[in-house]
Design brief:
two-stranded antiparallel sheet; 6-stranded antiparallel beta sheet; alpha+beta; 35% helix
């Protein structure tokens, strides 16, 4: 999802503020929040749409940037899906492992589109890392073997990522996926949380925003998309546990809102940000 690359950029430029980060990979927002609560991590980059009502001691430092939803469909199905989202029915859609960030986000999209897992669509539960391994195997395979490996991949993959995304680039170049535009971002953001979800982990859809994936973001001379592709975006936020010293957080905020980090990611001012967790004070 490109967060490792974002973390590397923060590590490199955070040194100007005497911040020394050790980067540890996680399986996504759900695992990162769990590790923060046990203080196995001090900071994490997480999806600001996800809510964890039972999480204790998590504090938000800043919203760094946004992640665009990439709805990727194998090119033999992409044109019909772009014309009618109902054509997703009957396809093989990756929802990710139960309880994962991918499952939570994909589940919210499926519910909005009124598609029932295992009834209307065939579900796969790959971690994104599993798909990366399959794509790497495709790159080294013979043409005949490539066809078999491609057939084993899901027909549809949805992923939130900063643009450009290495994972998306590989899907487009290696396995012939296309980006399908999302025209329902505003409608998706109008749906409040169901009352029965308040006390369990859930997606807070009202924090999504309409966005565009720019033309030529992927594919080089054979671009995907050919023109700006409408989609939706989620906030990528930096969170910490409550015991990280105020002085460290102060230096981190300085690093985020000035210099190279601010020029690349354009973080919104804190005064214009509705936090997903209590602010670190």
């Amino acid at each position: 999802m490109n967060r490792h690359k974002v973390a590397e950029y923060l590590k490199r430029h955070g040194q100007e503020w005497t911040l020394d980060f050790e980067i540890r990979p996680t399986a996504g927002t759900v695992e990162a929040i769990t590790m923060l609560q046990s203080e196995q991590l001090d900071l994490a980059l997480v999806n600001g749409l996800l809510r964890f009502p039972k999480a204790k001691g998590i504090r938000q430092v800043a919203t760094l940037t946004s992640e665009a939803l990439h709805l990727l469909v194998k090119n033999e199905f992409s044109e019909e899906v772009a014309e009618d989202y109902g054509r997703l029915a009957g396809l093989k859609i990756n929802l990710g492992p139960d309880g994962s960030e991918t499952a939570m986000m994909s589940g919210a999209l499926m519910k909005f589109l009124r598609l029932r897992p295992d009834n209307d669509v065939t579900v796969t539960k790959y971690e994104l890392d599993d798909l990366v391994e399959q794509l790497e195997e495709m790159k080294a395979a013979s043409e005949e073997r490539k066809d078999d490996l491609r057939k084993a991949l899901p027909d549809v993959v949805a992923v939130f990522s900063t643009v450009p995304s290495d994972f998306v680039e590989t899907l487009v170049d290696t396995a012939d996926y296309d980006l399908v535009p999302i025209h329902f971002a505003r409608a998706f953001a109008q749906i409040p949380v169901d009352e029965e979800d308040f006390d369990r982990d859930h997606v807070d859809q009202i924090r999504t925003a309409a966005a565009d994936i720019p033309a030529y973001a992927y594919g080089g001379a054979d671009p995907t998309p050919e023109i700006d592709c409408p989609t939706m975006a989620s906030p990528l936020i930096i969170v910490t546990h409550k015991n990280v010293p105020d002085e460290v957080v102060s230096r981190l905020l300085e690093a985020i809102h000035t210099g190279a980090i601010a020029r690349l990611y354009r973080p919104p001012p804190l005064t214009r940000t509705a936090p997903s967790f209590p602010w670190h004070k």
